[in-house]
Specification:
The complex is a heterodimer of chains A (475) and B (492). Chain A folds into three domains: 223 residues, Amidase signature (AS) enzymes, CATH 3.90.1300.10; 132 residues, no CATH class; 65 residues, no CATH class. Chain A is globular and about 70 Å long. An eleven-stranded mixed β-sheet of chain A has the order 1-3-2-4-6-5-10-11-9-7-8, sandwiched between helices. Helices cover 40% and strands 13% of the residues of chain A. Chain A starts with a helix and ends with a helix. Chain A has 475 residues and is α/β, with parallel strands linked by helices. With 492 residues, chain B is of the alpha+beta class. Chain B has three domains: 298 residues, no CATH class; 115 residues, no CATH class; 62 residues, Arc Repressor Mutant, subunit A, CATH 1.10.10. Chain B has 16 helices and 13 strands. In chain B, strand 11 and strand 12 form a beta hairpin. Classes of the chains: A alpha/beta (475), B alpha+beta (492). At the A-B interface, helix 10 and helix 11 of A face loops of B. The structure holds zinc ion. The site of zinc ion (ZN) has 8 residues of chain B, from loops. The site of zinc ion has 8 residues of chain B, from loops.
């Protein structure tokens, strides 16, 4: 099995056909998808057609693009024209988007081959894919354990070698946490670096699309393709990170801060803490300067997140009313129909968050909840800004523990929410962060180390990630 | 005295605030590139964005900001460095996202005013927002709750609106009508909307309350909707004031509610509402950046503002000696007032007042009848100046001029050509007319005798008869002023 970078090079040079690459991956999917359930929908025929188109370009001597023939799995909250896009929810039953998300267009234009739509927690709300209306995805490394979430299907697809690359979305850790659980690389870019056009919104001010890959350089390859300004997204930023692919591993002289609030606190598994400390030592050995740093407001991130994200979601999900598309359950009048449709179409966690968000925005509560959460957000941004005056990047665990067992946290939503404790602050700040696999726990499950960087600090973040990857080796 | 009688003696003052929604005449919608067009086939001007499809995102149309800045300039608003959009959350089937993207506590225009009949009316704010689609409820009771089914046209969804909210600063229906007329004239003049109340591109809701004269606390306000002309706005306010006065005098409590104006019955109805009071859960729209107009955008908007109606009226009244009323009618129609100004500039003889009279009379009627704009008329402003000149020089009479005007509008050519082709010319040859008068006096000795011996009434009658004979003898072409003078001389 080769990396995405190697596959693209082989297809571009004519050494391999895109069709043979696609067939090989579709065969892997056929052999293990039954037990893993990474996908809601496998687009085998379309994938072969896309692969053939790439091969035809190579045959004509045209540039097939940097992702030539590389299979890419797409989280099922990314709109794909004419292909079911469900958010793993019954409410979008039967809906076929009439348009492609900007990232889907960019992947395809770069020669990538979309192999299917991956499972997620319904509307990306969850940390285990157990909230999918179509059943959970299983962790390919241990089928009794969750793959993480919400982008569990995309993480599992890469871990199971169904595709060397996949796309997920990260609102509070939904890329980094499953990457950590499945032993792959997962990146949440700076807010605005990747267009959200065509990403079905969960929490608009926090959502960001990013790549999963087996290696740091493969993740860089995909991020290079999907980043860049898009006039269809008003929050898309004009300045993109410079090319990240092959952008070096030199960390000599870099200042690395180990965030105590995310590392040295109760709830962080000692094995996980030890792995982060080993990663820090590895960086030190390569010439980086490592110190512990306090980012005090980090601890309020979870509370702020669980007001802001549900508030935005309560508004974003209002449109699923049975009037225009998706599920419709009849009622005596239009409002009865709206209620019946939403009652039947949304799962328990989605309903819980809509209720929470509606409450947080209600007259009389807005200042105490939503406005207060936004003030905390400002505080977090300020604390990070102070930290980045002293450090180039920050380091922490990606998750408090390794992948947990199915059902371990479904009875207690709050314990599930805690699995995002280390990742949420980056979303609130709009900063980039990524998870790199670094060793295994005593349960033989992978541990993820998180590298955090200031806004548009992707270049330095990837350099540090490569150094960690080089030290720990790829699982 | 009973308390009712005591209350009946209280004099009430009317307090009116107006919320005016104006559809902006941009080529495309507020957040997408769909055409902003009235009257297209249902659901043809739509896309993922204005349908609110999952995953779609809004992108602000800069032209809308330009129009908002013009409104800010023309209505004396303060336009802050930064304004933001909010989401107004409520369920309604013709609203694709089930929230309306609007502005809330940081609007683009804050605290402005407009002068109406010499008085400044304060305007609290003006903000940008998107329009909803349009529902048609079919069968059953024809309302959303009891129809068999409903059809929704999303062509209007996402059309840019400005909501202009006055302070409760008006004290009579007349003043409210004056406010809307003036607002309409300004919006037309600055080219941001076609402001047609009948087509719904201008919608006026009135907040009406009453309070005892001399008090300053506002009474309970009632919102009235569904007025489709300035006239019905006035009628609805008058009705509502009377309703509230009677209710208050009979000890009934006014409830804060929305009432529907019924044009045919001439009354307001309370609207049956299924929900209790709405909580719109406003919060800042995370998908849009703050609106921060640059100095260049502000300058461009300022440069696009023409002479405003009040100033234009004042100038026309002073320079052209026309009545205030005529100036008002003319200026309410910017295309026509441009036309008149061009025509007056081309006048060689005749008066500007005549130009205005033609414009606000025959030409305005012609435009309304044919639904045509002045720039499409076969009579150019320069040709109108020529026509006015022909009358001024005495070459044709006013009544002949009407015929010439009709011929010109029908495309028969320039006024002088139409006049000669139709054989229309005024005889101003004094010698010829004197001969006609002499002939008439000679042919009607009895009338002349009765004129000379009769009282004032008889004189007037006979003089009219003789004048008619003279005009007849001239085949209607005699210059009336000249004929009159010659007749007086002959009878003296
Ligand atoms: Zn549109």
């Amino acid at each position: 099995m080769r990396s995405a970078v190697e596959i693209a090079a082989a297809v571009r040079s004519g050494e391999r056909t895109a069709r043979s690459v696609a067939e090989e991956h579709l065969a892997t999917i056929a052999s293990r998808e039954g037990e893993i359930h990474a996908f809601n929908h496998v687009t085998a025929d379309a994938a072969l057609a896309q692969a053939d188109a790439v091969d035809a370009k190579v045959a004509r001597g045209e540039d097939p693009g940097p992702l030539a023939g590389v299979p890419v799995a797409l989280k099922d909250n990314l709109c794909t024209r004419g292909v079911p896009t469900t958010c793993s929810s019954r409410i979008l039953d039967g809906w076929l988007p009439p348009y492609n998300a900007t990232v889907v267009e960019r992947v395809t234009a770069a020669g990538g081959v979309a192999v299917g739509k991956t499972n997620l927690d319904e509307f990306a709300m969850g940390s285990s894919t157990e909230n999918s209306a179509f059943g959970p995805t299983l962790n390919p490394l241990d089928l009794s354990r969750v793959p993480g979430g919400s982008s569990g299907g995309s993480a599992a697809a890469v871990a199971a070698r169904f595709a060397p690359l996949s796309l997920g979305s990260d609102t509070g850790g939904s890329i980094r946490q499953p990457a950590s659980f499945c032993g792959v690389v997962g990146v949440k870019p700076t807010y605005g670096v990747v267009s959200r056009y065509g990403l079905i919104a969960f929490a608009s001010s926090l959502d960001q699309i990013g790549p999963f890959a087996a290696t740091v350089n493969d993740a860089a390859l995909l991020l290079d393709v999907i980043s860049g300004h898009d006039r269809m997204d008003s929050t898309s930023i004009a300045a993109s990170p410079t090319a990240l692919l092959n952008d070096g591993t030199d960390v000599a002289g870099l200042r690395v801060g180990l965030v105590t609030e995310l590392t040295d606190v109760e709830g962080i598994d000692p094995e996980v803490r030890a792995a982060v400390e080993r990663a820090a030592s590895a960086l030190e050995a390569q010439g980086a300067i490592v110190e512990r740093i306090s980012v005090p407001s980090c601890i309020y991130g979870l509370s702020a997140y669980y007001l802001i994200a549900p508030a935005e979601a309560s508004s974003n999900l209002a449109r699923y009313d049975g009037v225009r598309y998706g599920l419709r359950v009849d009622g005596d009048d239009v409002y009865e129909m709206n209620s019946a449709t939403r009652d039947a179409g949304f799962g328990a966690e989605v309903k819980r968050r809509i209720m929470l968000g509606t409450y947080a925005l209600s007259a009389g509560f807005y200042d105490a909840y939503y406005a207060q959460a936004q003030r905390v957000r400002t505080l977090i941004i300020r604390d990070f800004a102070a930290a980045y005056e002293r450090f180039d990047v920050l380091l922490s665990p990606t998750t408090p523990t390794t992948a947990f067992k199915f059902g371990a946290k479904t009875e207690d939503p709050f314990s599930m929410y805690l699995s995002d404790i280390c990742t949420i602050a980056s979303n609130l700040a709009g900063h980039p962060a990524m998870s790199i696999p670094f060793g295994l726990g005593s349960d033989a499950m992978p541990i993820g180390v998180q590298v955090l960087a200031p806004a548009l600090g992707e270049s330095v973040m990837f350099r540090v990630a490569r150094a960690i990857e080089a030290a720990g080796g790829v699982a | 005295m009973s308390s009712n009688e005591v209350q009946a003696e209280i004099q009430y003052e009317t307090v009116i605030g107006l919320e005016v929604h104006v559809e902006l005449a941009t080529k495309t919608k507020l957040f997408c590139a769909c055409a902003n067009e009235f009257g297209s086939e249902p659901n043809t001007n739509i896309c993922p964005v204005c349908l609110g499809l999952p995953g779609s995102l809004p992108v602000l149309n800069e032209r809308v900001v330009d129009f908002a800045l013009r409104i800010g300039e023309a209505l004396n608003f303060t336009v802050p460095q930064r304004s933001i959009f909010h989401r107004k959350n409520y369920f309604y089937p013709d609203m694709p996202k089930d929230f309306q993207t609007s502005q809330y506590d940081e609007p683009i225009c804050a605290e402005g005013w407009i002068e109406v009949d010499g008085e400044r009316i304060g305007i609290e704010r003006a903000h940008m927002e998107e329009d909803t689609g349009k529902s048609t409820h079919v069968g059953g009771g024809g309302r959303i709750h009891d129809a068999d089914h409903s059809l929704v046209d999303y062509n209007r969804a996402g059309v840019p609106l400005m909501e202009i909210v006055s302070h409760p600063a008006m004290r009579s229906s007349e003043q409210a009508r004056g406010y809307v007329s003036e607002l309409r004239a300004v919006l037309l003049a600055i080219g941001v909307s076609d402001v047609k109340m009948e087509e719904g591109s201008m919608r006026v809701d009135a907040n009406v309350s009453i309070r005892p004269v001399g008090t300053t606390q506002l009474g309970t306000k009632v919102e009235i909707k569904n007025m489709n002309s300035i006239r019905s706005l006035g009628r609805a306010i008058d009705y509502e004031v009377e309703r509230q006065t009677i209710a208050t005098n009979t000890g009934e409590r006014i409830v804060q509610e929305t009432r529907h104006w019924d044009e045919s019955e001439g009354i307001t109805h309370g609207m049956r509402s299924k929900e209790g009071s709405s909580d719109y859960r406003f919060f800042p729209e995370p998908d849009l950046a703050p609106v921060a107009p640059t100095d260049e955008m502000r300058a461009a908007a300022r440069a696009a503002i023409p002479e405003l109606p009040a100033a234009l009226r004042e100038r026309i009244v002073a320079e052209w000696q026309v009545a205030e009323h005529d100036a008002r009618v003319l200026v309410a129609n910017p295309a026509l007032s441009d036309y008149a100004q061009e025509s007056v500039a081309a006048l060689a003889s005749g008066s500007a007042r005549d130009v205005v009279n033609w414009c606000t009379g025959e030409l305005l009627a012609y435009g309304n009848e044919t639904g045509s704009e002045p720039n499409s008329w076969a009579l150019s402003p320069i040709a109108l100046a020529e026509l006015v000149g022909l009358v001024g020089d005495g070459a044709i009479s006013r009544s002949q001029a009407k015929e010439v005007l009709a011929g010109c509008l029908a495309g028969e050519g320039a006024p002088s050509d139409v006049a000669s082709a139709r054989g229309l010319a005024q005889v101003s040859d004094e010698g010829a007319l004197a001969a006609i008068i002499a002939g008439v006096l000679e042919a009607n000795p009895d009338a002349v005798a009765e004129y000379r011996t009769g009282d004032e009434k008889a004189q007037k009658k006979k003089r009219g008869f003789l004048m008619g004979e003279a005009m007849k003898a001239s085949k209607g072409q005699g210059n009336p002023a000249l004929l009159n003078r010659l007749l007086d001389a002959g009878l003296a």
